[in-house]
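#structure-requests
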Amino acid sequence: MNIFKIFMESSITAQIIMIVLIIFSIWSWAIFFKKLFEFARFKSRARHFLSTYRLYNSISELNNLGHLLNNNAYGRILRNGLEEFKKLRLINIHNPNSPDAEKKEKTTAELSDNIRLVMERAKISELSELESSLPILGTFVSVSPFLGLLGTVWGVMEAFFDIRARGSAHITIVAPGISDALITTVYGLMVAIPALIFYNIFRTRVNRHSGEIDRFINEVFVRLRKALITGQQ
């Protein structure tokens, strides 16, 4: 079967639908390769950061990570946590020599939740970057079969119009309309199926990275909260 030949012999309506579907297909494959690169870079930089991060035991040493706090998602999340940690420490609400030390320690523990909140906000921002273009893939998955179905309905409708106009249901009369109907369905599925596979692949990866970042945030939060309450450096 020569799909290109069928395309050239199809009606204008079917050709327009197929051209739109071809554009969707090219667009979805471009997104696929772009996201593959982005996820590979994300994973590589995250692995490098985590291997370095775990070598530092004190909070003050974490500030010496330098560019690693800026060139990857984990580093930027940690940077936000450290900045909030410094702000809370500057407030100096934890004062062991104060008669209200116990009350202030409790207040410090409550305010330490701000560290988690800023890191959670940073996480949302980072995941938004990873999720970019995924809604487009989702749109292709939803729209492409319907465009194919539109071509199908249109082709069948043209076939019946020809039958009514000519008063005959001979195969030579109905074949062009049925051909248009089938080929647009094929085009629609050829776009939707790969786009659905791409979407599921990247959605799964985003969910996995989200879980890993959550564990990292919990780890950092425990360290910073303990340092804030005890006054460790």
